[in-house]
Amino acid sequence: MLAMTSFSSTLRQIFSNRNMIVLTISEFIFMFGGTLWWAFQSLYILELGASKEILGMLMMMQSATLLLFQVPGGVIADRFGRRKIIIYGSFIRCIPPVIYILADHWFLLIPGILIDSLSTLDIPAYNAIIIESLPLETRATGYGAYRTLTSIPRILTMPLGGILMDSMGVIPGMRLCLIINEIGLLAVAIIQWRFITETRGGGGRAKKGCDEPRERVSIAHRLKRMPRGIWVLIIVGGLTSFASRLSMSFMVIYAVEVIGLSKTEWGVAGTLFSLVSTVITTPTGFLADRVGRKSCILISHILSLLSLIGFLNSNGFIGVLLSRALGGVGSGFGGMVWGFMGGPTWQALIADLVPSEVRGSMMGLIGAITGAIGIPSSWVGGYLYENLSPSLPFQLSIVLRGIAVMIFLLFLREPKEKAR
């Protein structure tokens, strides 16, 4: 009873912050439109004439261009504040869906992919402003509550997207989903422009007497002095990023072509994943604040690994449902890494290790390094899927995830004192 009272009090404290309310509402809208079509993006690219190897190359190009903007985005966020870069990113993000709607060949998707990558300049600032809007002692709980609320749309929209694809066809259904997404993105941009407040002291202009070369030296110097835990996270995050990108773009293709699911069934499986993850994300964030980040991250990685093994060995809809439910539990513990982003417990651990004055830069740099390691994996996965065996990308992903778990278990030590 006391724990529940403390939990409720923590949530009230978190959502008394204006930024957390604004970011939660805007991300909720963003997720509603995005999750209608994200799970079916690979099928759309194939319908526009791409082979599976070309699909992998497009995803690799997306990863490479995303990498270009992580470190600059972090540096800009630390020098000029979080608010401006988030607003610019939100308006730029409105452009790619229009390009995707108009494209009638996979090659014409490339400008949209490049502009979408440019919009990710705001990722380090976004991560930093969330962390800095949360009380120090409840970072994981707060991040978990934010992720829980913003994941709710996935419960409804993924099967709806699948129904549209099955009833209208992949291309018409995808274009309708993209139109809905575009309306939501415009609303998000306006909300963030009007209501987000700055969290970085002196944000909005460069500090006097601070020249860029000296700042870059300072960042490099600080990175060298970062605790060993940061480097462990970079290695584990890099391996996990490579492993997840090996198989992520091909899961829906494998489910439809090999296992025999309909798009609606895949959407339902995604809904179960999201439902399980959403329900447990906030309680596990609360748990991570109480018992430590390492245990929760470790559970997250192990369950996600077992989920992928289950998916690969599924023979039908029920098997996929069970594997995705297990993956939802793993995701709910908040310790996974997808390219440049990590779950709430993972992000909270990074924040515990990195001081506030360079948090934007370091989050950008960490994201860039882990993302760089994963760049070629989508192309490798496409080549393996198309030329050797559809199951091979998943098998290699399982091996790499297992190695990442062992490294994290043996070498990660949580800090005794959390960075402010």
Topology summary:
Blueprint: H1 2-14, H2 18-34, H3 41-47, H4 52-68, H5 70-80, H6 82-92, H7 96-102, H8 110-119, H9 123-132, H10 139-168, H11 170-195, H12 212-224, H13 228-248, H14 251-259, H15 263-291, H16 293-312, H17 317-332, E1 337-338, E2 341-342, H18 344-353, H19 359-374, H20 377-387, H21 392-411
Antiparallel strand pairs: 1-2
Pick out its properties.
single chain, 420 residues, mainly alpha, Growth Hormone, Chain: A, two-stranded antiparallel ribbon, 21 helices, 2 strands, 1% strand, globular
Number of strands: 2
Give the strand order of the largest sheet, numbering strands 1, 2, ... along the chain.
1-2
Report the major sheet.
2 strands, antiparallel
The CATH superfamily is identified as: MFS general substrate transporter like domains
Task: Give the CATH topology.
Answer: Growth Hormone, Chain: A
Query: For the residues shown, what is the average pLDDT?
Result: 82
Give, in order, the helices and strands: HHHHHHHHHHHHHHHHHEEHHHH
Total helical segments: 21
Compact summary:
This protein has 420 residues and is an all-alpha fold. 77% of the residues lie in helices and 1% in strands.
What does this molecule look like?
- The protein has helices at about 1-15, 20-35, 40-45, 50-70, 70-80, 80-90, 95-100, 110-120, 125-130, 140-170, 170-195, 210-225, 230-250, 250-260, 265-290, 295-310, 315-330, 345-355, 360-375, 375-385, 390-410, and strands at about 335-340, 340.
- It is mainly α.
- The protein starts with a helix and ends in a 9-residue tail after the last helix.
- Helix content is about 75%, strand content about 0%.
- Helix 16 runs antiparallel to helix 21 (about 390-410).
- The protein contains 21 helices and two strands.
- The model is unreliable at about 200-215 (pLDDT under 50).
- It has one domain: Up-down Bundle (Growth Hormone, Chain: A), CATH 1.20.1250.
- A two-stranded antiparallel sheet has the order 1-2.
- The longest helix is centred in the middle third of the chain and has 30 residues, at about 140-170.
